[in-house]
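Per your request, structure below.
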């Protein structure tokens, strides 16, 4: 795998990236790798990944029976 060295970053940017990494329980290197990989993906692939994540979240939820929902709202 290739390595990339980025110089002349403001200290404030590096500190923000460190905080972001720590908030996700990742090292700075892991966080930067994820950011670069995501930025290099075509937009369509990113949308596909987001859609897959949403489908996974929705699949875990209990479906709502809309007829029961409507009936409940109409009952006195």
């Amino acid at each position: 795998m290739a390595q990339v060295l980025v110089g002349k970053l403001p200290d404030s940017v590096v500190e923000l990236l460190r905080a972001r990494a720590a908030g996700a329980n990742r090292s700075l290197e892991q966080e930067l790798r994820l950011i670069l990989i995501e930025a290099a993906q075509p937009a369509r692939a990113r949308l596909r990944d987001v859609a897959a994540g949403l489908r996974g979240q929705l699949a875990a939820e209990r479906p709502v029976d809309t007829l029961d929902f409507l009936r409940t709202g109409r009952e006195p």
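Residues 43-60 form the longest helix (18 residues).

Regards,
D.
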